[in-house]
From TrEMBL:
UniProt keyword annotation of Protease present: yes
Cofactor(s) this protein requires: Zn(2+)
Signal peptide (UniProt feature, chain positions): none
Descriptive protein name: Probable M18 family aminopeptidase 2
Catalytic class of the enzyme: hydrolase
Keyword vocabulary terms for this entry: Aminopeptidase, Hydrolase, Metal-binding, Metalloprotease, Protease, Zinc
One Pfam entry name: Peptidase_M18
CDD domains: M18_DAP
Residues that, per the record, bind Zn(2+): 82, 156, 401
Single annotated GO MF: aminopeptidase activity
Protein family (similarity comment): Belongs to the peptidase M18 family.
Length: 429
C-alpha cells in the first residue's frame, strides 16, 4: 500500500483543477493547522512565532511561519513552486456552432503538449465574476463531471496522423459540449449561471466574466506493476506545491520559513501575482519592517525553487545528455544551466547535496543537451527580484506538460523529507 503522503497528493490533485482551486486547497490545509489569513488591504499586526498566509488573485499564496530565532540574523528558509499548469482556457466569446454541434473556442495556455488532449473526458473549472443585487462578486466553480470532449479525426481521414501531424489550435481544439436541435440555443453564460446556482445556491446572478480551464476528469492514480508511479494531471507543478506544504506543516518552529506558490509560471511569471511580480518582495518587506532589515535578511536566506525535472525516457534516451539522465524514484534532481535558465550555483548545489546526504536521500543532477534549448522556472526570476541565493530542483517526470504526467512515488517522499530538512536546517550557506 502506498503512503499517506501519496494519497494526500492524489486528493490534492483531484481537488485542484485550476490554480484557484489549488490555492483554495492550500488555504484550507493551512487554516486547519492554525495559520491565520492576512489581507493585503489591512494593517498587519504580526505576533512573534505567528503563523500566517496571504493570497493574491485567489491563485497565488504565501505561507509564513515566524521562527524563534532572529529573522534578520538567521535568514528565511524559502521554498517556491507554482500553481498553474498548461491547459486550454475558454475564450471570452466562446460559442461556436458547426453542423449543430455546440463547441467552445479555447486559447492555449502555456507550452501544452496538445495531442494527448484528444479523446479525453473533459470538465471545466476556474473562477467566475458576476453581479448580484448590484454587487460585484467572484466565486470558484468546478463542473466535476465530463461535459466536453475533443474527438480525434479518424485515421482513415487523416493518413498523416502518425507521421507528423501539425495541430491547428484555432480550428482543431474547440471541445464539443452538445448536439443542438433546431429549437435549441447556446448561451455559455447561462450555463455558468446554472452551475453557480447548483454548486453554491446563488440565484439571479449575471455572469460578467470568467477564467476557466478545461481539464481531464480521469483522477490521479498510483500505477505500475509494483505501484511505482503517480499518474495524473498537473503534477507539474502541484506535486511541488503539495510537498512544500507538507514540509512546512511538519517542520520545527526554530527558524522563519516561507512557502510561496505563484501563478502564471507557464507563461513567464510576469503578473501582479507571478514570480516576476512584486508579491513576494512586498510581503517580505511588510514582515521585516525596513529596507535594511530586508536586505540583511535576504543575504542570510536561501530559496529552494521546486519544479519538476525531465526524467530520462527509455524510449528517447538520446534526448538527454549522456551523463545527466535522472531516473524516477531515485531522488530529487538538481537543475543546472550555464546560461542562468536555472539559478543553481556551486554553493547552493553543494548545500543541497549535503542536506540530502544528512537526510539519507539520493540526489541527481540534470543538464540539458548542449544542442537543445533549456526551459526555465521561478528560480532565476525570484533570485533576480530579491537577490536571494537560490537552487533549482525538482522530481524527475515523464510527459511534462501533457494532460497526464508521470512521476515516482518514492520521489514524492524524498522531496517532502528534504524540504522539511531544509526548513529545519540550523545553518544556510
Amino acid at each position: 500500500m502506498y503512503s499517506t503522503s501519496t494519497q494526500g497528493l492524489l486528493d490534492f490533485l483531484n481537488n485542484s483543477a485550476s490554480p484557484f482551486h489549488a490555492t483554495q486547497s492550500m488555504c484550507q490545509a493551512l487554516q486547519a493547522a492554525g495559520y491565520q489569513a492576512l489581507d493585503e488591504r489591512d494593517s498587519w499586526q504580526l505576533e512573534p512565532q505567528g503563523r500566517y498566509y496571504v493570497t493574491r488573485n485567489d491563485s497565488s499564496i504565501i505561507a509564513i511561519k515566524l521562527g524563534k530565532q532572529d529573522t534578520v540574523e538567521h535568514g528565511i528558509r524559502l521554498v517556491g513552486a507554482h500553481t498553474d499548469s498548461p491547459c486550454l482556457k475558454v475564450k471570452p466569446q466562446p460559442e461556436i456552432t458547426r453542423h449543430n454541434y455546440w463547441q467552445l473556442g479555447v486559447e492555449v495556455y502555456g507550452g501544452v503538449l496538445l495531442s494527448p488532449w484528444f479523446d479525453r473526458d473533459l470538465s471545466l473549472a476556474g473562477r467566475i465574476t458576476f453581479k448580484q443585487n448590484n454587487q460585484l462578486k467572484s466565486c470558484l466553480i468546478d463542473f466535476k463531471h465530463a461535459i466536453a470532449t475533443i474527438p480525434s479525426l479518424a485515421i482513415h481521414l487523416n493518413r498523416e496522423a502518425n507521421t507528423g501531424w501539425e495541430i491547428n489550435a484555432q480550428t482543431e481544439l474547440p471541445p464539443i459540449l452538445a448536439q443542438l436541435h433546431d429549437t435549441q440555443s447556446k448561451d455559455f453564460r447561462a450555463l455558468l449561471a446554472n452551475q453557480l446556482e447548483l454548486e453554491h445556491g446563488i440565484h439571479d446572478a449575471t455572469i460578467l466574466d470568467y477564467e476557466l480551464c478545461f481539464y481531464d476528469t480521469q483522477p490521479a492514480a498510483v500505477i505500475g506493476l509494483n505501484r511505482d508511479f503517480i499518474a495524473g494531471a498537473r503534477l507539474d507543478n502541484l506535486l511541488s506545491c503539495y510537498a512544500g506544504l507538507q514540509a512546512l506543516l511538519n517542520s520545527s518552529d526554530e527558524h522563519t520559513q516561507v512557502l510561496v506558490c505563484t501563478d502564471h509560471e507557464e507563461v513567464g511569471s510576469n503578473s501582479s501575482c507571478g514570480a516576476d511580480g512584486p508579491f513576494l518582495a512586498q510581503v517580505l518587506h511588510r514582515i521585516l519592517g525596513s529596507e535594511e532589515a530586508f536586505i540583511r535578511t535576504v543575504q542570510h536566506s536561501l530559496l529552494i525553487s521546486a519544479d519538476n525535472a525531465h526524467g530520462i525516457h527509455p524510449n528517447y534516451a538520446d534526448k538527454h545528455d549522456g551523463n545527466h539522465g535522472p531516473l524516477l524514484n531515485l531522488g530529487p534532481v538538481i537543475k543546472i544551466n550555464a546560461n542562468q535558465r536555472y539559478a543553481t550555483n556551486s554553493e547552493t548545489s553543494s548545500f543541497f547535496k549535503l542536506l540530502c546526504a544528512q537526510a539519507e536521500i539520493p540526489v541527481q543532477s540534470f543538464v540539458t543537451r548542449s544542442d537543445l534549448g533549456c526551459g526555465s522556472t521561478i528560480g532565476p526570476i525570484t533570485a533576480g527580484q530579491l537577490g536571494v541565493q537560490t537552487i533549482d530542483i525538482g522530481v524527475p517526470t515523464f510527459a511534462m506538460h501533457s494532460i497526464r504526467e508521470l512521476a515516482g512515488c518514492q520521489d514524492l517522499g524524498y522531496l517532502i523529507h528534504v524540504l522539511q530538512a531544509f526548513y529545519n536546517s540550523p545553518v544556510l550557506p
